Amino acid sequence: MVNILEFYEKFYNIDKTVIENSQLALTELSGVFKDIDTRAEIGQMKVLKAMQENGLSDIHFNYTTGYGYSDDGRDILEKIYKDVYNTENALVRPQIISGTHALTVALAANLKYGDELISISGTPYDTLQGVIGIRPTRNSLMENGVTYDECSLTSDYKFDFDAIKKVVKPTTKMVAIQRSKGYDWRNSLTVSEIGEAIKCVKEINKDIIIMVDNCYGEFVETIEPTDVGADLCVGSLIKNAGGGLSPIGGYIVGKYDLVENCADRLSAPGLGKKVGATLGVSKTFLQGLFFAPTVTASALKTAIFTAKMFEKLGFEVSPKSTDVRTDIVQAIKFKDREKLIAFCQGIQLGAPVDSFVTPEPWDMPGYDNEVIMAAGAFIQGSSIELSADAPIKEPYIAYMQGGLTFEHGKIGVILAINNMVEKGLIKF
Ligand SMILES: *Cc1c(COP(=O)(O)O)cnc(C)c1O
Q1: Is the pTM for the entire model greater than 0.85?
Q2: pLDDT in tens, 36-51
Q3: Distance 125 CA to ligand 1 centre (A)
Protein backbone atom coordinates (compact mmCIF):
# COMPACT_ATOMS: atom_id res chain seq x y z
CA MET A 1 0.00 0.00 0.00
CA VAL A 2 1.18 3.52 -0.79
CA ASN A 3 1.49 5.81 2.19
CA ILE A 4 -0.27 9.07 1.32
CA LEU A 5 1.12 10.74 4.45
CA GLU A 6 4.61 10.82 2.99
CA PHE A 7 3.40 12.55 -0.15
CA TYR A 8 1.46 15.26 1.68
CA GLU A 9 4.64 15.93 3.63
CA LYS A 10 6.87 15.82 0.58
CA PHE A 11 4.74 18.03 -1.70
CA TYR A 12 3.12 20.40 0.76
CA ASN A 13 4.69 19.88 4.15
CA ILE A 14 1.27 19.34 5.68
CA ASP A 15 0.98 19.08 9.45
CA LYS A 16 0.76 15.43 10.50
CA THR A 17 -2.41 15.88 12.58
CA VAL A 18 -4.22 17.32 9.56
CA ILE A 19 -3.43 14.32 7.36
CA GLU A 20 -4.19 11.80 10.09
CA ASN A 21 -7.56 13.39 10.73
CA SER A 22 -8.32 13.56 7.03
CA GLN A 23 -7.64 9.82 6.67
CA LEU A 24 -9.84 9.16 9.67
CA ALA A 25 -12.60 11.31 8.16
CA LEU A 26 -12.44 9.33 4.93
CA THR A 27 -12.81 6.03 6.75
CA GLU A 28 -15.83 7.39 8.60
CA LEU A 29 -17.36 8.62 5.35
CA SER A 30 -16.86 5.47 3.29
CA GLY A 31 -20.54 4.45 3.47
CA VAL A 32 -21.76 7.91 2.47
CA PHE A 33 -19.27 8.06 -0.42
CA LYS A 34 -20.41 4.68 -1.70
CA ASP A 35 -23.95 6.02 -1.90
CA ILE A 36 -22.73 9.07 -3.82
CA ASP A 37 -20.95 6.78 -6.30
CA THR A 38 -24.20 4.89 -6.83
CA ARG A 39 -26.07 8.14 -7.51
CA ALA A 40 -23.39 9.19 -9.97
CA GLU A 41 -23.78 5.89 -11.78
CA ILE A 42 -27.54 6.43 -12.03
CA GLY A 43 -26.94 9.97 -13.34
CA GLN A 44 -24.46 8.58 -15.85
CA MET A 45 -27.09 6.10 -17.04
CA LYS A 46 -29.64 8.88 -17.52
CA VAL A 47 -27.21 10.91 -19.60
CA LEU A 48 -25.86 7.95 -21.59
CA LYS A 49 -29.33 6.64 -22.40
CA ALA A 50 -30.48 10.08 -23.59
CA MET A 51 -27.43 10.35 -25.86
CA GLN A 52 -27.99 6.88 -27.29
CA GLU A 53 -31.75 7.25 -27.81
CA ASN A 54 -31.28 10.53 -29.65
CA GLY A 55 -28.64 8.99 -31.90
CA LEU A 56 -25.81 11.30 -30.95
CA SER A 57 -23.15 11.05 -33.63
CA ASP A 58 -19.91 12.57 -34.81
CA ILE A 59 -21.80 14.75 -37.30
CA HIS A 60 -23.35 16.66 -34.38
CA PHE A 61 -20.01 18.10 -33.34
CA ASN A 62 -20.32 20.66 -36.10
CA TYR A 63 -19.39 24.31 -36.06
CA THR A 64 -21.99 26.90 -36.95
CA THR A 65 -21.61 30.64 -37.38
CA GLY A 66 -23.83 33.57 -38.27
CA TYR A 67 -27.56 32.98 -37.73
CA GLY A 68 -27.02 29.33 -36.87
CA TYR A 69 -29.86 27.88 -38.94
CA SER A 70 -30.11 24.06 -38.95
CA ASP A 71 -27.58 23.57 -36.20
CA ASP A 72 -27.97 19.83 -35.66
CA GLY A 73 -25.55 19.75 -32.74
CA ARG A 74 -27.52 22.42 -30.89
CA ASP A 75 -30.83 20.71 -31.62
CA ILE A 76 -29.71 17.28 -30.42
CA LEU A 77 -28.15 18.80 -27.30
CA GLU A 78 -31.53 20.28 -26.45
CA LYS A 79 -33.31 16.98 -27.11
CA ILE A 80 -30.85 15.21 -24.82
CA TYR A 81 -31.40 17.78 -22.04
CA LYS A 82 -35.17 17.41 -22.45
CA ASP A 83 -34.86 13.64 -21.95
CA VAL A 84 -32.41 13.81 -19.04
CA TYR A 85 -34.90 16.11 -17.29
CA ASN A 86 -37.85 13.93 -18.29
CA THR A 87 -39.78 16.87 -19.70
CA GLU A 88 -41.08 18.34 -22.98
CA ASN A 89 -38.64 20.96 -24.18
CA ALA A 90 -35.21 22.48 -23.56
CA LEU A 91 -33.23 25.61 -24.36
CA VAL A 92 -29.48 25.13 -23.83
CA ARG A 93 -27.41 27.94 -25.28
CA PRO A 94 -24.06 29.67 -25.14
CA GLN A 95 -26.05 32.91 -25.63
CA ILE A 96 -27.33 32.44 -22.08
CA ILE A 97 -24.66 34.31 -20.14
CA SER A 98 -25.16 32.87 -16.66
CA GLY A 99 -27.59 31.34 -14.22
CA THR A 100 -29.03 34.76 -13.49
CA HIS A 101 -29.58 35.35 -17.20
CA ALA A 102 -31.29 31.98 -17.65
CA LEU A 103 -33.59 32.75 -14.72
CA THR A 104 -34.26 36.23 -16.10
CA VAL A 105 -35.28 34.76 -19.46
CA ALA A 106 -37.55 32.18 -17.81
CA LEU A 107 -39.23 34.82 -15.66
CA ALA A 108 -39.52 37.65 -18.17
CA ALA A 109 -40.69 35.34 -20.96
CA ASN A 110 -43.58 34.00 -18.93
CA LEU A 111 -44.69 36.99 -16.85
CA LYS A 112 -46.54 39.92 -18.38
CA TYR A 113 -47.86 43.26 -17.11
CA GLY A 114 -50.26 42.64 -14.22
CA ASP A 115 -49.09 39.06 -13.52
CA GLU A 116 -48.18 38.00 -10.01
CA LEU A 117 -44.98 36.16 -9.08
CA ILE A 118 -44.56 34.56 -5.66
CA SER A 119 -41.41 33.04 -4.21
CA ILE A 120 -42.29 30.29 -1.72
CA SER A 121 -38.70 29.62 -0.61
CA GLY A 122 -38.09 33.00 1.01
CA THR A 123 -36.16 35.92 -0.45
CA PRO A 124 -34.42 34.73 -3.63
CA TYR A 125 -30.71 34.64 -4.44
CA ASP A 126 -29.01 38.01 -4.39
CA THR A 127 -28.85 38.70 -8.14
CA LEU A 128 -32.49 37.65 -8.55
CA GLN A 129 -33.54 40.39 -6.17
CA GLY A 130 -32.41 42.89 -8.76
CA VAL A 131 -34.08 40.96 -11.59
CA ILE A 132 -37.42 40.90 -9.80
CA GLY A 133 -37.11 44.44 -8.45
CA ILE A 134 -37.00 43.63 -4.73
CA ARG A 135 -33.82 45.66 -4.98
CA PRO A 136 -34.79 48.48 -7.36
CA THR A 137 -33.05 48.25 -10.76
CA ARG A 138 -33.66 49.48 -14.27
CA ASN A 139 -36.03 47.22 -16.22
CA SER A 140 -36.84 44.86 -13.33
CA LEU A 141 -39.96 42.69 -13.53
CA MET A 142 -41.67 44.95 -11.01
CA GLU A 143 -40.85 48.04 -13.05
CA ASN A 144 -42.54 46.27 -15.96
CA GLY A 145 -45.76 45.77 -14.02
CA VAL A 146 -45.26 42.35 -12.46
CA THR A 147 -46.29 42.16 -8.82
CA TYR A 148 -44.26 40.17 -6.34
CA ASP A 149 -44.73 38.57 -2.95
CA GLU A 150 -42.96 35.87 -0.99
CA CYS A 151 -43.44 33.24 1.74
CA SER A 152 -40.57 32.62 4.12
CA LEU A 153 -39.53 29.11 5.02
CA THR A 154 -40.39 27.90 8.54
CA SER A 155 -37.85 28.31 11.35
CA ASP A 156 -36.49 24.83 10.57
CA TYR A 157 -36.15 25.77 6.88
CA LYS A 158 -39.06 23.78 5.45
CA PHE A 159 -41.82 25.01 3.15
CA ASP A 160 -44.48 26.83 5.18
CA PHE A 161 -47.62 25.22 3.74
CA ASP A 162 -50.01 27.41 5.75
CA ALA A 163 -48.31 30.56 4.49
CA ILE A 164 -48.30 29.21 0.90
CA LYS A 165 -52.06 28.61 1.05
CA LYS A 166 -52.57 32.18 2.27
CA VAL A 167 -50.23 34.02 -0.09
CA VAL A 168 -50.63 32.06 -3.35
CA LYS A 169 -53.97 32.88 -5.01
CA PRO A 170 -55.82 31.14 -7.87
CA THR A 171 -54.92 34.20 -9.97
CA THR A 172 -51.16 33.94 -9.24
CA LYS A 173 -49.29 33.44 -12.50
CA MET A 174 -46.02 31.92 -11.34
CA VAL A 175 -44.47 30.44 -8.23
CA ALA A 176 -40.69 30.40 -7.90
CA ILE A 177 -38.75 27.91 -5.79
CA GLN A 178 -35.01 28.08 -5.10
CA ARG A 179 -33.63 24.60 -4.46
CA SER A 180 -30.18 25.58 -3.17
CA LYS A 181 -29.52 27.68 -0.09
CA GLY A 182 -27.31 29.93 -2.20
CA TYR A 183 -25.59 32.22 0.27
CA ASP A 184 -28.04 31.79 3.12
CA TRP A 185 -27.60 29.78 6.28
CA ARG A 186 -30.54 27.45 5.64
CA ASN A 187 -31.14 23.91 4.45
CA SER A 188 -31.47 23.41 0.75
CA LEU A 189 -34.78 21.98 -0.41
CA THR A 190 -34.82 18.36 -1.55
CA VAL A 191 -36.58 17.34 -4.74
CA SER A 192 -39.20 15.45 -2.75
CA GLU A 193 -39.89 18.52 -0.57
CA ILE A 194 -40.18 20.57 -3.77
CA GLY A 195 -42.65 17.96 -5.06
CA GLU A 196 -44.81 18.42 -1.96
CA ALA A 197 -44.79 22.19 -2.37
CA ILE A 198 -45.73 21.86 -6.06
CA LYS A 199 -48.68 19.66 -5.09
CA CYS A 200 -49.82 22.29 -2.60
CA VAL A 201 -49.62 25.10 -5.20
CA LYS A 202 -51.32 23.05 -7.93
CA GLU A 203 -54.24 22.45 -5.54
CA ILE A 204 -54.76 26.22 -5.44
CA ASN A 205 -54.75 26.34 -9.24
CA LYS A 206 -53.22 23.71 -11.49
CA ASP A 207 -52.35 26.36 -14.10
CA ILE A 208 -49.93 28.27 -11.87
CA ILE A 209 -46.49 27.95 -13.45
CA ILE A 210 -43.88 26.47 -11.13
CA MET A 211 -40.33 27.58 -11.85
CA VAL A 212 -37.43 26.02 -9.97
CA ASP A 213 -34.01 27.66 -9.68
CA ASN A 214 -32.00 24.44 -9.93
CA CYS A 215 -28.53 26.03 -9.60
CA TYR A 216 -26.08 23.73 -7.74
CA GLY A 217 -28.69 20.96 -7.58
CA GLU A 218 -28.22 19.05 -10.83
CA PHE A 219 -27.36 15.35 -10.44
CA VAL A 220 -27.07 15.49 -6.66
CA GLU A 221 -30.23 13.40 -6.37
CA THR A 222 -31.45 10.73 -8.78
CA ILE A 223 -34.45 12.84 -9.77
CA GLU A 224 -34.80 16.50 -10.75
CA PRO A 225 -37.58 19.03 -10.06
CA THR A 226 -39.12 18.30 -13.48
CA ASP A 227 -39.68 14.71 -12.28
CA VAL A 228 -41.97 16.00 -9.53
CA GLY A 229 -44.06 18.47 -11.52
CA ALA A 230 -41.95 21.60 -12.03
CA ASP A 231 -43.07 23.40 -15.21
CA LEU A 232 -39.72 25.13 -15.66
CA CYS A 233 -36.31 24.23 -14.28
CA VAL A 234 -33.33 26.52 -14.77
CA GLY A 235 -29.58 26.44 -14.19
CA SER A 236 -26.09 27.49 -15.17
CA LEU A 237 -23.59 25.54 -17.26
CA ILE A 238 -20.64 26.78 -15.21
CA LYS A 239 -22.07 24.88 -12.27
CA ASN A 240 -23.02 21.17 -12.05
CA ALA A 241 -24.67 20.65 -15.45
CA GLY A 242 -21.65 21.82 -17.42
CA GLY A 243 -19.45 19.14 -15.87
CA GLY A 244 -16.62 21.65 -15.51
CA LEU A 245 -16.09 21.75 -19.26
CA SER A 246 -18.72 24.20 -20.50
CA PRO A 247 -17.02 27.56 -20.94
CA ILE A 248 -20.32 29.52 -20.74
CA GLY A 249 -24.05 28.92 -20.91
CA GLY A 250 -27.29 28.16 -19.19
CA TYR A 251 -30.27 25.88 -19.61
CA ILE A 252 -34.02 26.09 -19.28
CA VAL A 253 -36.07 22.87 -19.43
CA GLY A 254 -39.77 22.28 -18.97
CA LYS A 255 -43.21 22.45 -20.57
CA TYR A 256 -43.20 22.90 -24.33
CA ASP A 257 -44.91 26.31 -24.61
CA LEU A 258 -43.16 27.84 -21.63
CA VAL A 259 -39.74 26.97 -23.06
CA GLU A 260 -40.79 28.25 -26.52
CA ASN A 261 -41.67 31.54 -24.80
CA CYS A 262 -38.16 31.57 -23.35
CA ALA A 263 -36.62 30.98 -26.77
CA ASP A 264 -38.62 33.88 -28.24
CA ARG A 265 -37.47 36.08 -25.38
CA LEU A 266 -33.83 35.04 -25.72
CA SER A 267 -33.65 35.48 -29.50
CA ALA A 268 -36.66 37.29 -31.00
CA PRO A 269 -40.40 36.66 -31.28
CA GLY A 270 -40.96 34.38 -34.25
CA LEU A 271 -37.34 33.22 -34.39
CA GLY A 272 -37.25 31.27 -31.12
CA LYS A 273 -35.10 28.15 -31.06
CA LYS A 274 -34.41 28.19 -34.80
CA VAL A 275 -31.50 30.61 -34.57
CA GLY A 276 -28.36 30.98 -32.45
CA ALA A 277 -25.01 29.77 -33.75
CA THR A 278 -23.05 27.60 -31.35
CA LEU A 279 -19.54 28.51 -32.59
CA GLY A 280 -18.29 25.02 -31.92
CA VAL A 281 -19.28 24.67 -28.26
CA SER A 282 -21.95 22.00 -28.73
CA LYS A 283 -19.46 19.17 -28.36
CA THR A 284 -18.11 20.68 -25.15
CA PHE A 285 -21.64 21.11 -23.78
CA LEU A 286 -22.39 17.47 -24.59
CA GLN A 287 -19.12 16.24 -23.16
CA GLY A 288 -19.69 18.40 -20.07
CA LEU A 289 -23.12 16.87 -19.60
CA PHE A 290 -21.52 13.44 -19.97
CA PHE A 291 -19.11 14.28 -17.11
CA ALA A 292 -21.69 16.15 -15.00
CA PRO A 293 -22.85 13.22 -12.83
CA THR A 294 -19.32 12.21 -11.73
CA VAL A 295 -18.04 15.78 -11.42
CA THR A 296 -21.05 16.61 -9.24
CA ALA A 297 -20.24 13.53 -7.16
CA SER A 298 -16.68 14.82 -6.67
CA ALA A 299 -17.96 18.22 -5.56
CA LEU A 300 -20.40 16.52 -3.22
CA LYS A 301 -17.66 14.38 -1.65
CA THR A 302 -15.50 17.48 -1.26
CA ALA A 303 -18.35 19.25 0.55
CA ILE A 304 -19.01 16.32 2.88
CA PHE A 305 -15.31 15.84 3.60
CA THR A 306 -15.08 19.54 4.49
CA ALA A 307 -18.11 19.28 6.78
CA LYS A 308 -16.57 16.28 8.55
CA MET A 309 -13.18 17.96 9.05
CA PHE A 310 -14.69 21.14 10.47
CA GLU A 311 -17.02 19.14 12.70
CA LYS A 312 -13.91 17.48 14.11
CA LEU A 313 -12.45 20.94 14.66
CA GLY A 314 -15.58 22.00 16.57
CA PHE A 315 -17.19 24.35 14.05
CA GLU A 316 -20.85 24.52 13.13
CA VAL A 317 -21.42 23.47 9.52
CA SER A 318 -24.45 23.40 7.24
CA PRO A 319 -25.29 20.83 6.06
CA LYS A 320 -23.76 18.43 8.59
CA SER A 321 -21.65 15.57 7.25
CA THR A 322 -24.51 13.15 7.94
CA ASP A 323 -27.34 15.27 6.48
CA VAL A 324 -29.20 14.36 3.29
CA ARG A 325 -27.89 16.60 0.47
CA THR A 326 -29.62 18.17 -2.50
CA ASP A 327 -26.90 20.59 -3.63
CA ILE A 328 -23.12 20.98 -3.54
CA VAL A 329 -22.87 24.03 -1.28
CA GLN A 330 -21.13 23.70 2.09
CA ALA A 331 -21.35 26.46 4.68
CA ILE A 332 -18.94 26.74 7.61
CA LYS A 333 -19.56 29.16 10.46
CA PHE A 334 -16.20 30.53 11.63
CA LYS A 335 -17.47 33.20 14.06
CA ASP A 336 -14.12 34.92 13.52
CA ARG A 337 -12.91 37.25 10.80
CA GLU A 338 -9.34 36.00 10.77
CA LYS A 339 -10.28 32.32 10.55
CA LEU A 340 -12.69 33.00 7.71
CA ILE A 341 -10.07 34.89 5.72
CA ALA A 342 -7.38 32.25 6.40
CA PHE A 343 -9.73 29.52 5.17
CA CYS A 344 -10.57 31.33 1.91
CA GLN A 345 -6.91 32.17 1.32
CA GLY A 346 -6.06 28.51 1.95
CA ILE A 347 -8.56 27.37 -0.68
CA GLN A 348 -6.85 29.69 -3.15
CA LEU A 349 -3.49 28.11 -2.24
CA GLY A 350 -4.91 24.82 -3.48
CA ALA A 351 -6.10 26.11 -6.84
CA PRO A 352 -4.57 24.90 -10.11
CA VAL A 353 -4.83 28.42 -11.55
CA ASP A 354 -3.70 31.62 -9.77
CA SER A 355 -2.59 29.74 -6.65
CA PHE A 356 0.03 32.46 -6.11
CA VAL A 357 -2.48 35.25 -5.50
CA THR A 358 -3.86 36.01 -2.06
CA PRO A 359 -7.54 36.95 -2.08
CA GLU A 360 -8.44 39.91 0.14
CA PRO A 361 -11.83 41.24 1.25
CA TRP A 362 -13.12 43.97 -1.07
CA ASP A 363 -16.20 46.12 -1.62
CA MET A 364 -17.88 44.22 -4.40
CA PRO A 365 -20.59 46.10 -6.32
CA GLY A 366 -24.09 45.03 -5.33
CA TYR A 367 -23.16 43.75 -1.87
CA ASP A 368 -23.70 45.49 1.46
CA ASN A 369 -20.51 44.15 3.05
CA GLU A 370 -17.00 43.43 1.97
CA VAL A 371 -16.68 40.04 0.28
CA ILE A 372 -13.76 37.64 -0.04
CA MET A 373 -13.65 35.18 -2.91
CA ALA A 374 -11.27 32.28 -3.48
CA ALA A 375 -11.35 30.94 -7.01
CA GLY A 376 -8.55 29.66 -9.15
CA ALA A 377 -10.57 28.17 -11.94
CA PHE A 378 -9.98 27.16 -15.54
CA ILE A 379 -13.32 28.76 -16.43
CA GLN A 380 -13.62 32.23 -14.94
CA GLY A 381 -16.14 32.29 -12.10
CA SER A 382 -16.93 28.61 -12.44
CA SER A 383 -18.19 27.35 -9.13
CA ILE A 384 -18.26 23.66 -10.03
CA GLU A 385 -14.51 24.14 -9.63
CA LEU A 386 -13.28 24.35 -6.03
CA SER A 387 -14.18 27.82 -4.76
CA ALA A 388 -15.21 29.67 -1.62
CA ASP A 389 -16.92 32.99 -1.01
CA ALA A 390 -17.79 34.86 2.12
CA PRO A 391 -19.34 38.17 3.07
CA ILE A 392 -17.16 39.73 5.78
CA LYS A 393 -19.83 40.02 8.44
CA GLU A 394 -20.97 38.25 11.62
CA PRO A 395 -21.08 35.30 12.11
CA TYR A 396 -18.36 34.94 9.46
CA ILE A 397 -19.73 32.14 7.31
CA ALA A 398 -17.82 30.74 4.33
CA TYR A 399 -19.74 29.15 1.47
CA MET A 400 -17.65 26.59 -0.34
CA GLN A 401 -18.48 24.54 -3.39
CA GLY A 402 -17.03 22.55 -6.24
CA GLY A 403 -14.14 20.24 -6.88
CA LEU A 404 -13.78 18.81 -10.38
CA THR A 405 -12.16 15.72 -8.89
CA PHE A 406 -12.46 14.62 -5.29
CA GLU A 407 -8.68 14.19 -5.19
CA HIS A 408 -8.29 17.89 -5.90
CA GLY A 409 -11.15 18.89 -3.59
CA LYS A 410 -9.55 16.97 -0.76
CA ILE A 411 -6.07 18.41 -1.35
CA GLY A 412 -7.53 21.93 -1.55
CA VAL A 413 -9.41 21.59 1.72
CA ILE A 414 -6.38 20.03 3.44
CA LEU A 415 -4.29 23.01 2.30
CA ALA A 416 -6.93 25.41 3.60
CA ILE A 417 -7.06 23.69 6.98
CA ASN A 418 -3.27 23.47 7.10
CA ASN A 419 -3.07 27.20 6.42
CA MET A 420 -5.25 27.79 9.48
CA VAL A 421 -3.22 25.36 11.61
CA GLU A 422 0.08 27.02 10.58
CA LYS A 423 -1.31 30.41 11.59
CA GLY A 424 -2.23 28.97 15.00
CA LEU A 425 -5.95 29.63 14.40
CA ILE A 426 -7.14 26.03 14.84
CA LYS A 427 -5.83 22.76 16.25
CA PHE A 428 -6.97 19.14 16.09
C1 LIG B 1 -25.33 30.67 -8.75
C2 LIG B 1 -26.77 30.84 -8.48
C3 LIG B 1 -27.58 31.70 -9.24
C4 LIG B 1 -27.05 32.63 -10.30
O5 LIG B 1 -26.12 32.12 -11.09
P6 LIG B 1 -25.00 33.03 -11.81
O7 LIG B 1 -24.54 32.07 -12.84
O8 LIG B 1 -23.98 33.34 -10.80
O9 LIG B 1 -25.66 34.21 -12.38
C10 LIG B 1 -28.91 31.74 -8.94
N11 LIG B 1 -29.44 31.02 -7.95
C12 LIG B 1 -28.70 30.21 -7.18
C13 LIG B 1 -29.34 29.44 -6.07
C14 LIG B 1 -27.34 30.09 -7.42
O15 LIG B 1 -26.61 29.28 -6.65
Answers
A1: yes
A2: 999 999 999 999 999 9
A3: 7
